[in-house]
């Protein structure tokens, strides 16, 4: 049930609407709450929501219609006209607080809980005490009950895997790191740990420039641990140093630039960190579905409307998933039964249901709500069998792109195997709703997608064989790309300035006839180089090369060569996979595999056509180059990206299209149908 309150303010003097106030609330008890459990009781807890965000949640009082909480919380209020919503579980109720608030005076409040659909039904009352104080920067020490409540709330969030905030981290670079290799350099990577969450960065030297998010389960923050390691091929990695950061010391909703010194060696790590609140993460019963409430659904749809401000681009929308039941699951235990539970994953967000023991047709009837940071994300629903003595057994999986969801439609999905290439035994019934901002979704399409925290190390495929000449060509292209990117990153100011001047001169004076002329000069240059080599002593050159190879072979062991060859093969294989994948993605863009992306491509191409018609190509290329070269100068901590590749990364490849395709099933073969038709 829920209650909604809006409080008026009465005082001897006028109160400025722009002043910040502190609202102290003590939740005392409930009286004669409605029965919602089969045993004639309820398990109530209370939630407060302000400005659409959950700001407090009480502990659960089990099997009690007259619960006593005696919990308090302190809220910062910058608008006296903003209503405070109060909701109690197990019922749908709505009421209005009618009282005047006096400054620094405790006002007792009794809420009569009502259901808007059944206004004549008595659902009980709540007893509160509310005090309004001016916020002058000196907040008194919180009440002991409020502190205990905060600890209990953190424990509740951890138990149910509900995070209350997001820690956004942009890992920029390492400075003055201790060299660990004989050549005086290092191949550093960073490991992050926040509670049970872990993240490992890429291995770069020493600028990482990558962004990722971690979940914040505790209201007060937590301790972020950072360890820097040096990657060594063929042997154990070397430890460089570590540092810690207490998140409770940082202000929320603000980006902090931090340079953290390593404790056990010289050097430091530079990063940008932002703490933001997360308002739409929840697990509830079917009777407490947020989007089924017309008032709340209208509020959420208004929040993600077309003309809403674009303050937080990561808050694209929300998705609500009702996990109803499964049928005909695989028997994983020797008794012919299973203990199934369901795990829902959206990028790095992970929630799960409770376990139904000894059942092949479980009914969970739970509702999960996620924040949507990228509308092109894929919701993965996996069913496992719980085993107390070992890791859970896989029973089946489905993958549903958010853009494929039909709001309010309950569907039965055929479970697939681990590789998502074929069916396995069982169906799972889901009902999903997704609400998102179209403008934010379009803008997020051209930024790098969120990476998984834990990804498998790439391995050499047995089916890939590359000729040496092809290998050299691919490595040459990779090296050229690395060199060009280093010019944009200003790793060497002299090289970047020279490249910028060369770019401007070539683009400004370029004509089409210069292309065959440049090829002619290249051929002529190589002709004279080859002639000079032939006139030399070929035999002595070969002997010198053989002697050099012998020395190199003595210097390097067999295992070092093997590991080096493996790294090269992995790089080449990854490059070939990327080329093939992007080719498929381009094809699928023009095939309208994802209509949202195809419409977005049409919009961009229309704008490009108009610009090319009105503005000469030379000026557009110059503008692009100047912007590319000066990005690092304008924002030293900018994480570089390629908008075209980011767009294509959202288009599914042919393999992903096959994985996301829904398998057809015969309703006549459903286990419930077989039970009805079986005379025994």
From TrEMBL:
<comment type="similarity">
    <text>Belongs to the MCTP family.</text>
</comment>
<feature type="transmembrane region" description="Helical">
    <location>
        <begin position="464"/>
        <end position="488"/>
    </location>
</feature>
<keyword id="KW-0472">Membrane</keyword>
<dbReference type="InterPro" id="IPR000008">
    <property type="entry name" value="C2_dom"/>
</dbReference>
<dbReference type="InterPro" id="IPR013583">
    <property type="entry name" value="MCTP_C"/>
</dbReference>
<keyword id="KW-0106">Calcium</keyword>
<dbReference type="InterPro" id="IPR035892">
    <property type="entry name" value="C2_domain_sf"/>
</dbReference>
<feature type="domain" description="C2">
    <location>
        <begin position="147"/>
        <end position="260"/>
    </location>
</feature>
<dbReference type="GO" id="GO:0005509">
    <property type="term" value="F:calcium ion binding"/>
</dbReference>
<feature type="transmembrane region" description="Helical">
    <location>
        <begin position="596"/>
        <end position="624"/>
    </location>
</feature>
<keyword id="KW-0677">Repeat</keyword>
<dbReference type="GO" id="GO:0046928">
    <property type="term" value="P:regulation of neurotransmitter secretion"/>
</dbReference>
<feature type="transmembrane region" description="Helical">
    <location>
        <begin position="500"/>
        <end position="525"/>
    </location>
</feature>
<feature type="domain" description="C2">
    <location>
        <begin position="302"/>
        <end position="415"/>
    </location>
</feature>
<protein>
    <submittedName>
        <fullName>Multiple C2 and transmembrane domain containing 1</fullName>
    </submittedName>
</protein>
<dbReference type="Pfam" id="PF00168">
    <property type="entry name" value="C2"/>
</dbReference>
<feature type="domain" description="C2">
    <location>
        <begin position="3"/>
        <end position="122"/>
    </location>
</feature>
<keyword id="KW-0479">Metal-binding</keyword>
<dbReference type="Pfam" id="PF08372">
    <property type="entry name" value="PRT_C"/>
</dbReference>
<dbReference type="GO" id="GO:0030672">
    <property type="term" value="C:synaptic vesicle membrane"/>
</dbReference>
<keyword id="KW-0812">Transmembrane</keyword>
<keyword id="KW-1133">Transmembrane helix</keyword>
